[in-house]
Amino acid sequence: MNELDELALAFAALASDAGRVVMTVYATDFEVRRKADLSPVSEADEAAEALLVPGVQKLLPGVPILAEEAVSRDGLVDVGSEFVLIDPLDGTKEFVSRNGEFTVNVALVRDGVPIAGCVYAPALQRMYVGGSTAFSGTVEPGVTDAYLPEMTTRPYPEALVAVASRSHRDAQTDAFLADVGVSETRSAGSSLKFCLVAEGAADVYPRFGPTMEWDTAAGDAVLRAAGGTVTNPDGSAFRYGKADQGFRNGPFIAWGGAPLR
What is the pTM of this model? Predict the structure, then answer.
């Protein structure tokens, strides 16, 4: 196990601890507020981020951190070629609807590429980790030393299975799915869509609507470590650190192997 794997697993331990905090709030009659951009936020988002940020600072002293709630509250910070992206509760809508498909996301980006990250779904007790190698397994919230077996994507089958957003399906997505010959489409919330491709439950995840870099970096890191790729729709490299765009993503395609178009 190399340094990136160790860092990704350290992120996973932090995410599991944050998941414990999230699930404590999940068990209550929590209040949901609206941020300036009208997206929902709860006590769970803020409590998890308050745990994750200092934890990452101890692991990576001096490395800039972009954490979703801090950015919403205080604005963007300057980052260089290396920085950490944190989404303390990706899928707040799933959290509010109590369907379990929300995640804690942490990722390290270097030179535009997410090189270590973890995605943790505490309600599902499912952890996904990616450094040089990808790992996944069952982890109860708060457990920081669980064994995680290695994980890889699958070879492309004759008929592809796609995973798509439950709440962001659009005409562009439908056209793409028809063009690549998808036989089945599965739905999933939050960054779990990347993870379904990473574990071989699906082969491609197209996203044409807007996302933020902290929404995608951790799942992207997991998928790349498992053998997948993430590209722009034209096949060019999908990059992070888009400060001039407020760290907002354009469309992308997440593949279980080499891009098919």
Answer: 0.95
Most distant CA pair in the chain: distance in Å? 49
Taken in order 9, 196, 112, 134, the sign of the CA dihedral is positive
Residues 130 and 94 in one domain: yes
- Let me know: does 101 contact 192? Beta carbons within 8 Å: yes
Instruction: Kindly state whether residues 14 and 132 are assigned to the same domain.
Output: yes
Mean pLDDT over 143-169 rounds to 89
Report the pLDDT value the prediction gives residue 223, as an integer from 0 to 100.
98
CATH code: domain of residue 110: 3.30.540.10
The DSSP bridge partners found for residue 128 are: 119, 136
Phi, psi of 34 (to 5 degrees): -115, 135
Q: Residue 37, Cβ neighbours under 10 Å: how many? A: 6
Question: What single-letter amino acid sits at 30?
Answer: F
Domain coverage including residue 201 = 160-255
Distances (CA, A) of 39 to 33, 36, 137, 159: 8, 8, 30, 36
Buried b (16+ CB within 10 A) or exposed e, 157-190: eeebbbbbbbeeeeeebeebbeebebeebeebbb
Is the backbone of residue 221 left (phi > 0), alpha (psi -120 to 50) or beta? Answer: alpha
Task: Name the residue with higher pLDDT: 9 or 190.
Answer: 9
- Contact assessment for residue 228 and residue 257, using Cβ atoms and an 8 Å cutoff: yes
Q: Nearest CA to 12 among 184, 239, 218?
A: 218
| Average per-residue pLDDT for the chain | 93
51-69: per-residue pLDDT in tens?
Answer: 999 999 999 999 999 999 8
Q: Please count the structural domains in the chain.
A: 2
